Amino acid sequence: MKQSFKELAKYGIVGLVGLGVDWAAFFIFRDVFGINYIASHILSSILAITNNFILNSYFTFKATDKIWQRAISFFGIAGVGLVIGSILLPVFVQLISFTLTHFDLSLAPKIIQNLAKLAITVIIAFLQFFLNKYYTFKKKEV
Known about the structure:
Blueprint: H1 2-32, H2 37-60, H3 67-102, H4 109-136
Helix pairs in contact: 1-2, 2-3, 3-4
């Protein structure tokens, strides 16, 4: 149990670094290059996923054997998360917009997109932690 908590804490640190990569790239793609928010989400997520795989392999789980097998698993799980997140992103944007309208409130569209992306990021991160811990970075029983 102690090891799981330590790994969760390290996973959280890696996640924060990945979050920084994800959000910085998202803002650059969307706000500097003018790319649609869903495409920006996909591109920034791919960069963050790559970053997180490297850091989780060497820092969080210290699992550097079978690197290609682990990479396929990690990117597969991340790909599922990316698809779910990309489907949920416009749904959450609409849900937040509808909720705000219901209460006669309004926010700029980019703020609503940011809130939706934040909610999705949290949901997907928890799901991926458990899938990666117990599948991708599972240690061999000795």
